[in-house]
Amino acid sequence: MARKGRVVHIPKPPKSAFDKNRPAGALLRAQAVHLRHALARHVQKVARHLNKVGELLATDLDAIKTEGHVSDYAKRVTAVLHPRGGKHAHK
Amino acid sequence: MPPAGLDNLKHIVVLMMENRSFDHMLGALMAQDKRIDGLDDTQTNPDTTNTQIPVKPLAEFQGQLDPDPDHHFPGVDLQIFGGVPPRSGRVANMQGFIKSYFQQQQNVQQSQKIMYYFTPEKLPVLTGLATQFALFNGWFSSIPGPTICNRAFAHYGTSFGQVGMNIFEWKGPYLSIYERVLLAGRTAKIYYYDGPSSTMEIVNLLRNQSKIFGTFDQFLGDCKSGNLPDYSFVEPNYNDHDSDSGAEIASDQHPDHHVQHGEIFINNVYNAIFNNEELWKTTALLIVYDEHGGIYDHVSPPDCTPDDAAFVASADKTGTGAPFAFDRLGVRVPAILVSPWVPKNVVIPGPNQRNGRKFDHASIPATVMKFILRDFDPNTLSPANKQKFLASSKREQAADTFLDLLGDKMQPDDDIPTFVVR
Fold this sequence. Notes:
Number of domains of chain B: 1
CATH architecture of chain B: 3-Layer(aba) Sandwich
CATH class of chain B: Alpha Beta
Strand order of the largest sheet of chain B: 6-5-7-1-10-11-4-12
Structural class of chain B: alpha/beta
Oligomer: heterodimer
Largest sheet of chain B: 8 strands, mixed
Number of helices of chain B: 15
Mean pLDDT of chain B: 96
Distance between the termini of chain B: 45 Å
CATH superfamily of chain B: Alkaline Phosphatase, subunit A
Strand content of chain B: 5-15%
Shape of chain B: globular
Order of helices and strands of chain B: HEHEEHHHHEHHEEHEEEHHEHEEHHHE
Number of strands of chain B: 13
Order of helices and strands of chain A: EHH
Mean pLDDT of chain A: 87
Number of helices of chain A: 2
């Protein structure tokens, strides 16, 4: 519900104000460069993550013999599946 | 006992527009209020034929400042110092604006348009708010340079030595104001307009901090539902684009975007706060521009406390042949503090006036920290987090804050302007 104070009328810009074919200025071009850089950083992060996942998928489970082997594997997989679950349980 | 306005304060909202100088947008207000350090039509700049060209009330909403006036570091240096190269004792005479604009097209007539300013009736929202609430005569951009580094001061209290638009990634020692607010257990958000407009705070913030970003629709929703964070930073629409609801006109007022649409956007932010009565009583809204965009202003930017020694920009970065220690502010920009707790029609004197004060974008994190620290004990943080929370740049440490402008009495609702688009 709009509240009312002292009403002041303001004009609307004409439809011609919109021009998505206007050449992009230095700021918008810089924005695109920064966005691409951020995306590249993001991809690097995802790639590191995927590498880690790939290693875990390629693990030879027949080589897992001991509880220590299982716990080590479980810890690394859980860290991928549930990143916040890595903390020690309180006794 | 703090004044009631400060006692009631729960939210700070900053709306940062683009690339217009104080004189260009608000200078004409001096004709109706002599306290405002604006224009009286005696201000001039020489053109390239050495004719003195006065300021003129001929600014248009669109189509006039094309090409976009230069506002990179060397261009602004020329605008401020009139073409005198860096050397000790040179005077900031504000005499190089036409010369600078001429360099872009070698067109004498076009270059003079940099002296044009708006009359108040053309900007009813900005001038209406400026005369109803608190107008800063002395709010300067943080650096005599372009957008990205100036906006960095609003987010970090420093640009980490950057004076341009280049990509930079900073990993410390200073946290953004959003990270500091979150460390204190409070809430903070940057609301960008929408996906196609995106944010200008990309590399350092978008990377790991998706939780502090929201869209303008979310801002409107958060205002309506009373869920606005303790600190909000609002970005306008930076480009013309299509959306599901039709044509989205850029609202940032960056030349050559339509200034009237920026007026409507400012009003949308203001209205969203005003329309929630509880929010209105508990919110301070700062409307400010990131930098002057190469457009004339008559007030010489003052010296300031240099930033950290590690943040000196080298001569090859500044492009002027001299390094820059961040010891001078950039050109003056419009800044208005809106709150019902601000007495009507306050003008905060600038540095050249009696009891003058100077502000810049480092004043924003400095003020938010003061607001957060008001009843937050940093000793509740771990030693490492406490150190991070309290660390700030020399520029932020020296920056003036503006919460003292909130008083004890509320302005009555029936005197508060409500802008209606027709």
